């Protein structure tokens, strides 16, 4: 087993990103940090590093438990990383999910397909 692995390979291997190129792109955009410092895709990580990943609207935090360069099944992921996202960040995520479910107030913003059809039926074509 390697002592160090590239951050983009590890993020892809533990299934945080669907492709390695997506992981590298997120690093380049500044959406991946190690101990609060933005990193490049080529940055090497070690066991015990804390990685923050931007998952709108929060920063999810993970601790590296083991290193790998090979993608694995979802059942094996807990052996390689531990989710240590702070509770306040998880609460913000839940609040944003609830807000999204409420949707927008009727009559505000762009009309939905149903509302557009009702408007067309009311005013005629």
Report the count of strand segments. Answer: 7
The parts where pLDDT drops under 50 for at least 5 residues are: none
Terminal residue distance? 69 Å
Within the largest sheet, what's the order of strands? 3-2-5-6-7
SSE succession:
EHHEEEEEEHH
Major sheet details = 5 strands, antiparallel
Secondary-structure-based class equals: alpha+beta
Q: Given the structure, what is the number of helices? A: 4
Roughly what is the average pLDDT, rounded to an integer? Answer: 90
| Overall shape | elongated
**Roughly what fraction of the amino acids lie in strands?**
15-25%
CATH homologous superfamily title: RNA-binding S4 domain
What is the helical fraction, as a range of percent? 25-40%
Using the coordinates shown, work out and report the CATH topology. Structural Genomics Hypothetical 15.5 Kd Protein In mrcA-pckA Intergenic Region, Chain A
Q: Mind telling me the CATH class? A: Alpha Beta
Could you say how many structural domains there are in total?
1
């Amino acid at each position: 087993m390697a002592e160090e692995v590239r951050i983009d390979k590890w993020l892809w291997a533990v299934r945080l990103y669907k492709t390695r190129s997506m992981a590298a792109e997120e690093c380049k955009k500044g959406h991946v940090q190690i101990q609060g410092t933005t990193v490049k895709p080529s940055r090497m990580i070690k066991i015990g590093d804390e990685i923050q990943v931007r998952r709108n609207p929060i920063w999810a935090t993970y601790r590296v438990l083991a290193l790998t360069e090979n993608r694995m099944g979802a059942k094996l992921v807990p052996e390689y990383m531990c989710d240590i996202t702070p509770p306040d960040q998880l609460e913000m995520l839940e609040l944003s999910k609830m807000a999204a479910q409420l949707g927008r107030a009727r009559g505000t913003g762009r009309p939905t397909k149903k509302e557009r059809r009702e408007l067309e039926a009311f005013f005629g074509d």
